[in-house]
Amino acid sequence: MSFDSLGLDAEILKAIQEQNYTDPTPIQQQAIPVILSGKDLMASAQTGTGKTAGFGLPILQKWVEQQAQTTNKLEAKKGKRPLYALILAPTRELAAQIGENIREYSRYLPIRSLVVFGGVSINPQMMKLRGGVDVLIATPGRLLDLVQQNAVDLSTIKMLVLDEADRMLDMGFIHDIRRVIAKLPKKRQNLMFSATFSDEIKVLAQSILHAPELVAVAKTNSASEQITQYVHRVDKRRKRELLSYLIGKNQWQQVLVFTRTKYGANHLAEQLTKDGIKAAAIHGNKSQGARTKALADFKSGQIRALVATDIAARGLDIELLPYVVNYELPQVAEDYVHRIGRTGRAQNEGQAISLVCIDELPQLKAIEKLIKKTIPELTTQGFEVDPKIKAEPIKKSSQRRVPPKRGSANSNRSPQFNQNGVKSSSRHNHTKNKQPN
Ligand code: AMP
């Protein structure tokens, strides 16, 4: 199937040609016709499958079509640009990434898109909204702040996208999402994307989507085939040494490293730098400026190792990212799939290596159960595990459950979930890092 056969506008086709996209990816092949037909969509697709264009391109197409129809209508006469589509994303990085993609795809269209997220000044965002915007990409918290300040009118929205809906729930955004949805017109098209399909997601989907078409590209909870995965058993105290050794010996020039905690990310970035490997940390406690700079330096090759926590890494889109290292395994097995999904994106191959100490064997078991395969082991001479070392329980992170800005979302999560008919997951409540948006 080619992009030409999807019925997209010539200006859109020109822009995607310039992106060197030759054929639509499977999610694009399935999702684009459904969205163009006007139906609601529930799509199970991980980041890296091309899902952003999967919803971005048909949104642009539908906007073009409705522009042609409404040129002479009242709204146009008033000179106002009514907001056409709203895309909600859980993290700033993902929102920025979606915004960048939409800008690229709409390069030849007279459309205005805007990205808004917290952590940066609200005033420039308000100014831009006042000037009129067609497609708004937002994180839920900042969007509600803008709504409260009457800076944005959501009543004209025709299309809503919830991207990485599973992560939105994990991060405690359910109430923010519901508050946003309450401001939208009843008649609209809804698109929901999620990497995993938990019961919570199904309940959310039932309450938002109307007779949705279901589209799935990779098996739920399965890791991409293009990613070669390895486990490297190692003693905890030798992990850093091994990581520096692997980076040096294999001459990895761009490696994304995951730690469980923000402190761990900072500490490891400092240690790698001491080992002569240029590194930076990216996590929720860093200012937006510092996060953007670290990502830009990583993309441009000025730093070799980007050390990230799970939430900070969501939505990072780094072309051709070849290596992901799990310096520590995540406490929730699904996060493993999200983490390694940073590599092997689109048609590229990637390698994911997990450095696993004896304390982490239960997590490894849970991950292998989830992905339904045993991950092959790598060994390195001189880094064999010491059989005398006994397992110690993993210390739970001290920075868990940072309440979100508007105390409502996380503070009393289970009862609030129940109020909305959404079952709360005790595992998520007790084990996940939560960082404000
Ligand atoms: P996403 O899953 O939307 O984050 O996309 C992952 C990566 O695939 C991004 O770098 C996109 O630019 C790229 N991509 C999206 N669609 C295509 C396509 N049809 N052909 C090649 N690359 C694509």
From TrEMBL:
InterPro entries (UniProt xref): DEAD/DEAH_box_helicase_dom, DEAD/DEAH_RhlB, DEAD_box_RNA_helicase, Helicase_ATP-bd, Helicase_C-like, P-loop_NTPase, RNA-helicase_DEAD-box_CS, RNA_helicase_DEAD_Q_motif
Upper taxonomic lineage: Bacteria, Pseudomonadati, Pseudomonadota, Gammaproteobacteria, Orbales
UniProt-recorded name of the protein: DEAD-box ATP-dependent RNA helicase RhpA
Composition-biased stretches (Polar residues): 408-424
Gene3D superfamilies according to UniProt: P-loop containing nucleotide triphosphate hydrolases
EC number: 3.6.4.13
Gene Ontology MF: a single term: RNA helicase activity
NCBIfam families linked: PRK10590.1 (NF007882)
Coiled-coil portions: none
Record SUPFAM superfamilies: P-loop containing nucleoside triphosphate hydrolases
Region annotation Disordered: where it falls in the sequence: 389-437
Keywords, sorted A to Z: ATP-binding, Cytoplasm, Helicase, Hydrolase, Nucleotide-binding
GO cellular component annotations of the record: cytosol
Catalytic activity annotation: ATP + H2O = ADP + phosphate + H(+)
Domain (Helicase C-terminal) ranges: 226-386
Compositional bias (Basic residues): 425-437
Domain Helicase ATP-binding: 32-215
Residues annotated as domain DEAD-box RNA helicase Q: 1-29
Motif position, Q motif: 1-29
GO terms under biological process: response to temperature stimulus; ribosome assembly
Family membership noted in the UniProt record: Belongs to the DEAD box helicase family.
